[in-house]
Amino acid sequence: MLEAIFTAAIRAGTPLLYATLGEIFAERSGVLNLGLEGLMLVGALAGFIGSYLASSVWFGVLLALLTGGALALLFAFLTVSFRVNQVVAGLALTMLGMGISGYYGQAFIGKTAPQFSSLYIPFLSHVPFIGKVLFSHDPLVYLTYFLVPLSWFYIFKTKLGMSLRAVGEDPRSADAVGINVAKVRYLHVTLGGMLTALGGAYLSLAYTSMWIENMSAGRGWIAVALVIFSAWDPLRALLASYLFGGMASLQLRIQAMGAEISPHLLMMLPYVLTIVVLSFISSESVRKRIGAPTALMKPYAREEREY
After folding, report:
1. Which tens digits make up the pLDDT trace of 256-269?
2. Which among 20, 64, 109, 221 would be 20 to 30 A from 228, CA to CA?
């Protein structure tokens, strides 16, 4: 029972983890992207279409990455170059993603395409409990095992990561020492969009193995909360994503066991926790205490004295 819950938590937490990692990169550069829900939907559709047309799941992954990157680049163009309000631009991106996926996805509802299957790691998958929980998944889950520590190392231990954090904390000082603020923000917002779209592709290529309209089901909003919950740290993001994934899996099992609790009430649990987290950090003093980038949501222009 416990083994099954942990295994399901990793599967359910993986799309959240991709989106959370993507948003960490964007927010570390000082840009809040609230368009994660739209990016996940477009990524899910692009991944499914790529797999369907080319009969290759990896082509679907590639198409999702390119599509997510293109939309995130558009978002960066609006918020970095034109300094459009990041909240407004993010909400517009969500609506755009919902519109695109709803319109173009109609033709693919009910169709089948190649999907990722479980890949059992020799020797490791036979280890009692741990083998089943950690090493009985598809390749996109295994990819996160490398991506999470790599992201942590990049952000906290490399020169590029130091530039990223400098831009997110104090873009004027970063600019003064020769760091191209706009370039850093463009790069990491686009990277964040690609990872978020990959989280969406996981839904249609591995988790549910089909395309369903609005299949992200609010995961993009949960990922925004998880970034704060994890204090902008990729390693904590791993635990936070699996915790939320575990909650989603647990409520399904509670329903299956016939517990006399309303299924609607159980399904609300992840979203209630999201609201609690977002409410908790609404105070600027709280955000500073938990390590939020100081320049988050603040556009920068070299010619202005204050940003």
Report:
1. 776 666 666 666 76
2. 64
So what's the pLDDT on residue 281? 61
- In the numeric block, the tokens 């942990």 are attached to 6
Find the DSSP H helices in the chain. 2-28, 36-54, 57-76, 86-105, 130-134, 139-157, 159-169, 171-176, 181-202, 219-229, 234-256, 263-280, 284-289
Backbone φ and ψ for 252, nearest 5 degrees, come out as -70, -40
Closest to 36 (Cα-Cα) out of 12, 71, 84:
71
As a whole number of angstroms, the distance between CA 82 and CA 24 comes to: 22
Cα separation, 305 vs 285, whole angstroms: 24
Distance, CA of 208 to CA of 75 (rounded, Å): 28
Place of tokens 């320049």: 295
Q: For residues 45 and 242, what is the distance between their CA atoms, to the nearest angstrom?
A: 24
Distance in angstroms (rounded) separating the CA atoms of residues 122 and 274 = 38
Q: Is residue 204 helix, strand or coil?
A: helix
- The rounded mean pLDDT for the chain is 89
